[in-house]
Task: inverse folding
């Protein structure tokens, strides 16, 4: 439940940050990469928790 809450905060933060940097394509690419990496980490984490 806490992980889900953190996820929502994180995605809200990413969404706001992305809105702020729409003018800079390079920053947008970096934000996309960061979001992708975070999502992968969260997915791996939740899968590990389910296995245990």
Result:
């Amino acid at each position: 439940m806490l992980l889900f809450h953190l996820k929502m905060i994180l995605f809200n933060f990413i969404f706001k940050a992305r809105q702020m940097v729409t003018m800079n394509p390079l920053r947008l690419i970096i934000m996309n990469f960061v979001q992708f990496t975070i999502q992968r980490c969260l997915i791996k984490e939740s899968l590990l928790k389910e296995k245990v």
Notes: The first helix runs from residue 2 to 20. The chain has a mean pLDDT of 78.
